[in-house]
Amino acid sequence: MKINKSQLAISIMVPVLTGLLAGILTRNGAAAFGNLNKPPLSPPAWLFPVVWTVLYVLMGIASYLASEHGAEQQNVQTALLTYYAQLVFNFAWPVLFFNFQWYFVAFICLVVMWILILSTLVRFWRINRTAGILMLPYLLWTTFAGYLNLAVYFLN
Predict the structure, then answer these.
(1) Angle at 55 between CA 125 and CA 99, to 5 degrees
(2) Residue 1 reports pLDDT greater than 80
(3) Domain coordinates in residue numbering, the chain
(4) CATH class of this structure's domain 5-21+45-155
(5) 136 exposed, middle or buried (CB, 10 Å; 0-12, 13-18, 19+)?
(6) How many angstroms separate the CA atoms of 14 and 27, rounded?
(7) What would the pLDDT profile of 92-139 be if each residue is shown by its tens digit?
(8) Which of 64, 91, 79, 73 is nearest to 120 (CA)?
(9) From the CA atom positions of the chain, what is the Rg in Å?
(10) The pTM is what?
């Protein structure tokens, strides 16, 4: 398979820029996060942007691999629609959590996001197994984020 480098770059930049914009919009709220009661297993603050950047790159590569199997095909269109829907929730979550401090609403957003990620993973898997596998770390991290989010809700 020949790699379309410009399309791959765009596919990676879409989630990376989405995450970057969310990070910029929530930086003040994220700073206040340090003052919250946190559950056991909470990673250090510096780890979050590192992990999220890696996950954004992986999901961008996954979306590229899925889209390269014929964007005109209905199953590819549906998979990409689900992918972009989860990206919207991915953007909304930190705003709800950090800026508004609506921890329970953010958790519900995260649950919807998790369902959309799982759906994307399954749809990508059916199109290109590597694309599906590349979504797995994102699903696992979001599961862990759900634990952290819900614990913050109960502890604060």
Answers:
(1) 125
(2) no
(3) 5-21+45-155
(4) mainly alpha
(5) middle
(6) 20
(7) 999 999 999 999 999 999 999 999 999 999 999 999 999 999 999 999
(8) 79
(9) 16
(10) 0.95
